[in-house]
Amino acid sequence: MADELALVVGLGNPGPKYEGNRHNVGFLVLDELAARVGGKFKAHKAGAEILEGRLSGHRLVLAKPRTFMNLSGGPVAGAANFFKTPPAAIIVIHDELDLPYGVVRLKLGGGDNGHNGLRSITKSLGTKDYHRIRFGVDRPPGRMDPADYVLRDFSTPERKTLAFELDRTADAVESLLTDGLEAAQNKFH
């Protein structure tokens, strides 16, 4: 991603009620990245909690939208405009129902696959051409509504490996920044 500023967005819902939810995995990965950057998030006029820093020699802005997931697009577009970040330099980290728990997949562009946070971002940016890092949360059991499932905390067995999986996903972000998409895909797929 050259030396341009990267905007790394973690998707989630604000507030303590949602902290451990599967839907908040983007926020959880950003917390790991913030620990690596060495800083604290601060409220920003773009409508997100922002942390500016460097990671593996790359300039970046970490952003957690302060809106609910389905309205993430406004804060993401606001941060992209403020920091003059083109869509190709935006990385969005989000939960993915169609991947087994802990599986990480990277891609550039594509559809929203029913993910309302991605739909909102695509609409606000006016393009699908931004990077996505998808963190598998698996399908809900039985006939459980997917919306209810993603708003539940990770299960006890999942929590046993969650710190490792979040660390590995943060590694994928670093690899994308340092090595580019194809090399990062080869390493993490």
From TrEMBL:
Site feature: Stabilizes the basic form of H active site to accept a proton: D95
Chief place where the protein resides: cytoplasm
The family this protein is said to belong to: Belongs to the PTH family.
PROSITE patterns per record: PEPT_TRNA_HYDROL_1, PEPT_TRNA_HYDROL_2
Biological classification of the source: Bacteria, Bacillati, Actinomycetota, Actinomycetes, Pseudonocardiales
InterPro entries: Pept_tRNA_hydro (IPR001328), Pept_tRNA_hydro_CS (IPR018171), Pept_tRNA_hydro_sf (IPR036416)
Any one biological process term the GO annotation gives: protein quality control for misfolded or incompletely synthesized proteins
Name under which the protein is recorded: Peptidyl-tRNA hydrolase
Catalytic site positions: H23
Site (Discriminates between blocked and unblocked aminoacyl-tRNA): N13
Subunit structure: Monomer.
Keyword vocabulary terms for this entry: Cytoplasm, Hydrolase, RNA-binding, tRNA-binding
Residues binding tRNA: Y18, F68, N70, N116
GO cellular component: cytoplasm
